[in-house]
Amino acid sequence: MNLFEYSLLTAAFLLAVGTVLAIDRSSLNSLLRKFPRSQKLSILFLAVGLAWFAFRHVKNLSDADFGEYRMLIGLIALFICVSSYVFVKDFLAVRALCILCLFYSRESLDAAFLQEPNARLFLVSIIYLLVVASLYFGAWPYRMRDFLNWLFGKPSRSSRFGMAIAGCGLILFCISFSY
Q: How many angstroms separate the CA atoms of 147 and 47, rounded?
């Protein structure tokens, strides 16, 4: 994918998340509050993260980058994935989502690297905020629960936050056509 496609994908993601947060529905809010401890989402995010790591990174290792140990690296990754699910179930959905966000961040930053248009810096800024949030919530996943409790503490808070995220997505969508 190129810079334009990553910009559109990121804008679509921001618009979707912002719209979900801006719509203040109690059933949706309760589902979002349950997200940090969800076992089903843990399995889904871990499986996607493992597949992404195996097919995007391990499969493309050259001999200089331990390419002859692809099978061993893949088996170690599988062992870590299964062991994480068995032994570290608490807030595993948050950790696995952070892994996916970091993988996506790398891909989109690679696409923006050394590109000409200065408008790409808005995408890069959003991605770096995503990296910081992923590192923070990956290190302290219980903070996601605290953040969601704070966010849904007042109905206007989640709506305003959702509108701000959707606004960033709309700006990014418009900027992406200037590349």
A: 25
Is the pTM of the predicted complex or chain greater than 0.85?
yes
**Cα(151)–Cα(144) distance, rounded to whole angstroms?**
10
- What the block records as the tokens of 73 is 């690296």
pLDDT band at 75 (very low <50, low <70, confident <90, very high): very high
Least trusted range by pLDDT, from 7-11, 63-67, 140-144:
63-67
Q: How far apart are CA 25 and CA 161, in angstroms?
A: 14
C-beta of residue 109 within 8 angstroms of C-beta of residue 127: yes
Question: Number of C-alpha atoms within 13 angstroms, CB side, residue 177?
Answer: 4
The contacts of residue 151 (CB under 8 Å, 6+ apart) are: 21, 157, 158, 161
Task: Kindly tell me the sign of the dihedral angle through the C-alpha atoms of 35, 36, 39, 44.
Answer: positive
- Closest to 14 measured CA to CA, from 124, 168, 123: 168
Output 24 or 56, whichever has higher pLDDT.
Answer: 56
Which pLDDT tens digit goes with each residue over 87-143? 988 899 999 999 999 999 999 999 999 888 888 899 999 999 999 999 999 999 999
> Which of 6, 74, 76, 85 lies closest to 41, judged by CA?
85
Distance CA 172, CA 9 (A): 10
